[in-house]
Amino acid sequence: MLRYLTAGESHGPALVSILEGMPAGLALSADDINVQLARRQLGYGRGRRMEIESDRVMFRSGVRHGVTLGSPIALEITNLDWRQWEVRMDPTPNPDYKPNPVTKPRPGHADLPGALKYGHRDVRNVLERASARETASRVCVGAVARRLLAEFDIHVYSHVLSIGGVHARRVNLPPAQLHELAESNDVRCTDTGVVDAIHQAIDAAKANGDTLGGVFEVLVTGVPPGLGSHVQWDRKLDGRLAQALMSMQAIKGVEIGMGFAVAETPGSQVHDPIAYDAASAFGFIHTSNNAGGIEGGMSNGETIVIRVAKKPISTLYKPLASVDLETKQSFAASIERSDTCAVPAASVIGENIVAFTIAQAFLEKYGGDSIAEIRRNYIGYLTEIRER
Ligand SMILES: Cc1cc2nc3c(=O)[nH]c(=O)nc-3n(C[C@H](O)[C@H](O)[C@H](O)COP(=O)(O)O)c2cc1C
After folding, report:
1. Which structural domain, as residue segments, surrounds residue 319?
2. What CA–CA distance (Å, rounded) separates 234 from 250?
3. Per-residue b/e over 199-210, b at no fewer than 16 CB within 10 Å?
4. CA atoms of 261 and 241, how far apart (whole Å)
5. Which residue, by CA, sits nearest to atom 12 of ligand 1?
6. From CA 282, how far away is CA 299, in angstroms rounded?
7. What does the pLDDT look like over 4-32, one tens digit per residue?
8. How far is the CA of 162 from the centre of ligand 1 (A)?
């Protein structure tokens, strides 16, 4: 089973992840991961941290001379501003530390429920781990998953559909080309004509001490029919993708295919007719893809299409009211350094989160301990569905 755990505080010494279940024999370099980490740091509307951090991964185990061993892959990113936080975040009691607890929980953050749940008097003990800095670890893990998927011609793309209510026009192009357009600008929109309007919306929000959210779309091409399963609730691919994406900080909605629009559309315009095309990759095809590539909790051979809604950044420079945990007095919430808009970054994180879940389901179906063994299993399955 492919699984991972992450650890690390936002201002701790490092972020670490352990990915277990990757087969042996996969070519993997730090650059494969660093490219994704760099993409996560881009985007119009990010704050100062992105200038401080230039994330680089270090392999601590599981890879030798550029090839995976089949053992757990340990991945580490050093937090470059750790030096400034060394005393405050020291794991051992530090005589130089002058306690300065954060007692003002910020609305829209884990601060209040986390402090109450864990009995912390210093909200920093919550916010350090709740921070979206943790998503750098998830990008590391997802980047490894992507390398595996690429071996089997499965690719994950994304683009931003709207920010702060400014919508990009839909562009009708294959996913790889949509992705290329998205990569060409700092708001990751395929409709490049909307970029200026989005910049203006972000600038206006910033000037006003406010923040913006938005919607992005993740597309996965080349997924064979049969990943996930209809037989048990926790094996359904749509449910697993939704859980994985919802677990990203600030994600409040996940739609697959037509999503919420199915509720307002007659069945004849929702369900996708089935056809056979001997020239296609998997033989059986659908003549439309409103299901977004998933039926009955399984991939159906079409492109997987997922839309994800991200809320506006919680920390506002025009702060919302909060209550001091100790004095119970009203306060304007304290400000940690903050982004105005992180939707483009979230779309990159979303790609990598989706890559992990697809790779996990892929290995469940074609599992083996080496890439060669998985390839045999995969080719055997493709041959079988083509010959039936
Ligand atoms: C890429 C990314 C960057 C984020 N940057 C910030 C930020 O700078 N300031 C902030 O207040 N929230 C930021 N957030 C959102 C918070 O981490 C998140 O809203 C908070 O942890 C509460 O979790 P919840 O929104 O899932 O309930 C960011 C989220 C993502 C995905």
Report:
1. 3-387
2. 23
3. bebbeebbeeeb
4. 19
5. 313
6. 12
7. 999 999 999 999 999 999 999 999 999 99
8. 18
DSSP string, 168-203: PPP--S-HHHHHHHHHTSTT--S-GGGHHHHHHHHH
User: Given a cut of 80, is residue 51 above it in pLDDT?
Assistant: no
CA 241 to chain centre: 10
Give residue 108 CA to ligand 1 midpoint distance, Å. 9
Neighbours of 375 (CB within 10 A): 16
Q: How far is the CA of 335 from the centre of ligand 1 (A)?
A: 13
What CATH number does residue 363 fall under?
A: 3.60.150.10
Query: Using a 6 Å CB cutoff, which residues line ligand 1?
Result: 47, 108-110, 130-132, 135, 248-250, 311, 313-315, 338-339, 342, 345-346, 349
DSSP string, 259-323: GGGGGGS-GGGTSPPEEE-TTSSSSEEES--TTTTEETTEE-SSPEEEEEEEPPPS--SSPPEEE
Tokens of 254: 């996940």
Q: Is the pLDDT of residue 189 over 90?
A: yes
Q: Which two tokens stand for residue 331?
A: 């306060």
User: Two tokens at 329?
Assistant: 């007095």
Q: What is the mean pLDDT of residues 199-204?
A: 97
Say if residues 208 and 366 touch (Cβ distance below 8 Å).
no
Structure tokens at 45: 């509307």
In sequence order, the β-bridge partners of residue 73 are 19
Within 10 angstroms of residue 6's Cβ, the number of other Cβ atoms is 18
pTM: 0.97
The domain tally of the chain equals 1
How far does residue 309's CA lie from ligand 1's centre (Å)? 13
Total length of the chain = 388
